[in-house]
Amino acid sequence: MPRPSRTHDAVDQLLDAIIDGTLTAGEQLPPEGQLATEFGVSRLTLREAVRLLQAQGVIVQVPGSRHRIAPVSEWTGMDAVVRHARSAGQRRRSSLELLEVRVMIETGAAQLAAERRTAEHLDALESSLQRMVAHHEADEVDAFVAADLEFHETILHAAENRILIAAMLPLTSMLAETRGETSAVAEIREHAIAQHGKLLEAIRAGVPVAARDAMWTHMMQTRDDLIALVLD
């Protein structure tokens, strides 16, 4: 059995070649031996990488012929889709698509968190918000982003839904990247602090609808800031 690290490296190389157009969607995958040589891996490792990408809908098995590379619209694996979304030329679209997904997921998470949060969750949210304020004043963008992400992660955990948490995991790296872009702008950090404060109070009050609406307002402010101050 190939070592997982080698297999995952081969998956990354193969996926990158598809995303950058070196391997073209709709066409057959080059011969196994050729790809193994190009990527510097064994045929067994290459075969396992292809199998993993088949599971994500990136590569389609064709009986009696070489595998076919599927168009992005047919991909089903979150990891592959997110990797493509983060690629060059996809920045604006992927940023807005991610925000749309966040609106759908995080408004519901905030609603559940208002019903299920504990004193420990509230303390964690308060701590994250205080650190956001301190890091904003010190112009420490990376630390601000970390505190911002922790605030939202606490809301997810307060919602007490394991499937919800698992659904957000593949988006974590993409969230960190986009937060870094937006949080570099001081005005956006100020808006975020204000919106997080309102969100915390709604969750503290234990009013689900108010928490849901506060998260929606926060997401809309983020969208407006992203379009006006980062993407355009």
Automatic annotation (TrEMBL):
Species whose genome carries this gene: Agrococcus jenensis
UniProt-listed InterPro entries: GntR_C, TF_FadR/GntR_C, Tscrpt_reg_HTH_GntR, WH-like_DNA-bd_sf, WH_DNA-bd_sf
Residue intervals of the HTH gntR-type domain: 4-72
Claim: DNA-binding is one of the keywords in the record: yes
Pfam families hit by this protein: FCD, GntR
Molecular functions per Gene Ontology: DNA binding; DNA-binding transcription factor activity
Source domain of life: Bacteria
PANTHER family the record matches: TRANSCRIPTIONAL REGULATOR, GNTR FAMILY, UXU OPERON TRANSCRIPTIONAL REGULATOR
Signal peptide: none
Protein name: GntR family transcriptional regulator
Keyword S-adenosyl-L-methionine applies: no
Keywords, alphabetical: DNA-binding, Transcription, Transcription regulation
